[in-house]
Amino acid sequence: MAVKRSNIVWVVLLAIAGILVAAWVDGGEEPLRTIKQPVDLPEGAL
User: Fold this and answer.
1) For residues 4 and 1, what is the distance between their CA atoms, to the nearest angstrom?
2) How far is CA 3 from CA 9, 10, 25, in A?
3) Tell me, what's the pLDDT at 40?
4) HEC string of the chain?
5) Phi-psi category of 26—alpha, beta or left, where left has phi over 0 and alpha has psi -120 to 50?
6) pLDDT tens per residue across span 6-45
7) How far apart are CA 46 and CA 26, in angstroms?
């Protein structure tokens, strides 16, 4: 049973399109929040 090359190309294109749609729906920018945590600096670092 031979699979045509054009069928493979369509399957790959559909898979890429599906991944892009999923990333677009799930993705997006998340708001940045400040990190308020004290940091210990070694002596003489400044």
Assistant:
1) 10
2) 11, 12, 32
3) 86
4) CCCCHHHHHHHHHHHHHHHHHHHHHHCCCCCCCCCCCCCCCCCCCC
5) alpha
6) 899 999 999 999 999 998 888 877 778 888 898 888 887 6
7) 43
* Rg, the chain, Cα only: 24
User: What's the pLDDT band for 1 if we cut at 50, 70, 90?
Assistant: low
Residue 37 backbone phi and psi in degrees, to 5: -145, 130
